[in-house]
């Protein structure tokens, strides 16, 4: 760091010159649009969004949740485009409404983990010292426990304690909230480490020194001057975090400890797949394919964003 | 170096105690282990109370944790007017993992008999993953942006985005269900042995194919992309250009200078994965009804058999921490520039 006796550059000038990761929006957008995989990912995600929103306008919710044993296990046909499940619920309707829940879980769990991870990483990186040690040991602790086992145990721990929610005439199983919370509070360590590393290098920048010598409060420096410059990194991690949250939900639900099957999600639609593997492949092929598409789309977009925002990668 | 190892060992021990305490608290509330005891005739109230007292389930949680950690053979327990009996547990710090609540055998035995099964799946899978992952990565890097490079990149995106149960389901559907329908030789979809078979090595091998294939297909993509990126980065290094400028053959440059250095970061990846080897592939094991540690965990979670669950999580965490340390040490050996 420069000696404090040296005249420090004026704050606005330093901000304009030294910010490494935030570029003008149009340039980022241009680079993103030139990334073929990212555009493909975007198209996939828009298509999926249209599917889950548009579908719910055309198909009644009852079709997805009310059992109709007379029509059970029907193969895809004129009446039920994608067939029906073991108690006669329409697969297409379940895909639509289940997709809403899966995407909701992915996005909210990501936001929660983003909040925790950024906060912990930023505090540890900026304040250093004892706080840093404590927070990083905590991060290590969470990283060390095998994640799936931790999730299963927590799901069992909180399971059944949250009452169902009724929103807009639809009943959501309380397990949706349980899953969001446990995914959010277990998936932050990776992000916390990335943010901490970024803050460690950013706090050496001259504009931070300038702000410090102007007597700006430390909290304000962290949240107004340093953190915004780590946005690019955080956005990329957050995007990829959605994919990982959707996948994790699918894993736990597949093992029967996730969202209650009364509230469909793509994950729990696959729960009975092993039993109907050969006899009713439509029950698991469709939700499986949509899960794959979603994760693929999110990963494509995440990679595209990384390339578009990363100052080091000059290709594309 | 010794100081580094000593410091890490102290840190790891503290970490392990902290982690085990947190999990212990979580474990207390996952269900009532006594409720499922007695099989078809649930225990009556008085019996349940006596049993809970004998098992120490009524003690305060900190006391339970302390007993789990250091044992209770220095205390006596008095239940239901019976004469006080000395405690029998010796605590995990003295190597006593306790007794399973659901099948009354020592936890070490319950876990121990599953370990070889999990490793039987994971070790061949890990070998295949490393061999194919590194090979594909090198191949792609040497032919960057060629047809095969793009093909492998596309495929690795797809496999990395696929939940493992989906690939496993597809494999079972194709090789077990459809091959049978088409009259082709089909592969067994679950278990370790044919129930009517002779439990021969060939039988086990046939049952291993699909689970090992699923685990491999999922993870090989990550290794390939990692190797490719690492290779490409090394290929741009100055010393590689120097080697070329000296007139070294392309083959020698790639094998000696690029590959050797590009493999360094792989050491970390492999080291950390080896630590996770024993945690196995829970979903795969459960899907293929493979009697390994993953299915044991799911099984015992249903019984709230926390001594077994705790034992497993401690074992897993220990393995991960141990391999992290080994990886760090190995790294100094592979890359003498690194000093701790």
Write up what this structure looks like.
The complex is a heterodimer of chains A (316) and B (340). Chain A is 66% helix and 2% strand. Chain A has 316 residues and is mostly helical. Chain A has one domain: MetI-like (MetI-like fold, Orthogonal Bundle). In chain A, strands 1-2 form a two-stranded antiparallel sheet. The longest helix of chain A has 37 residues, at 91-127. The two termini of chain A are 34 Å apart. The model of chain A is unreliable at 1-21 (pLDDT under 50). In chain B, 67% of the residues lie in helices and 1% in strands. Chain B is built from 14 helices and two strands. Chain B has helices at residues 2-27, 45-55, 61-70, 107-112, 115-142, 147-161, 164-181, 201-235, 238-245, 250-262, 264-275, 282-287, 293-303, 306-334, and strands at residues 76-77, 85-86. Chain B has a two-stranded antiparallel sheet with strand order 1-2. The longest helix of chain B has 35 residues, at 201-235. Chain B starts with a helix and ends in a 6-residue tail after the last helix. At the A-B interface, helix 6, helix 7, helix 12 and helix 14 of A face helix 1, helix 6, helix 7, helix 12 and helix 13 of B.
- Strand content of the residues of chain B, in percent? under 5%
Helicity range of chain A: 55-70%
CATH homologous superfamily caption of chain A: MetI-like
> Which structural class matches the secondary elements of chain B?
mainly alpha
- CATH homology superfamily name of the largest domain in chain B: MetI-like
Main pleated sheet of chain A: 2 strands, antiparallel
Overall CATH class of chain A: Mainly Alpha
* CA-based shape of chain A: elongated
| Number of domain modules of chain B | 2
The most extensive contact between chains is: A-B, 36 and 42 residues
User: How many domains comprise the coordinates of chain A?
Assistant: 1
- The DSSP helix count of chain A reads 14
The spatial strand order of the largest sheet of chain B comes to 1-2
Helix content of chain B: 55-70%
Shape of chain B: flat
CATH architectural name of chain A: Orthogonal Bundle
Count of DSSP strands of chain A:
2
The oligomeric state is: heterodimer
Roughly how many Å apart are the termini of chain A? 34 Å
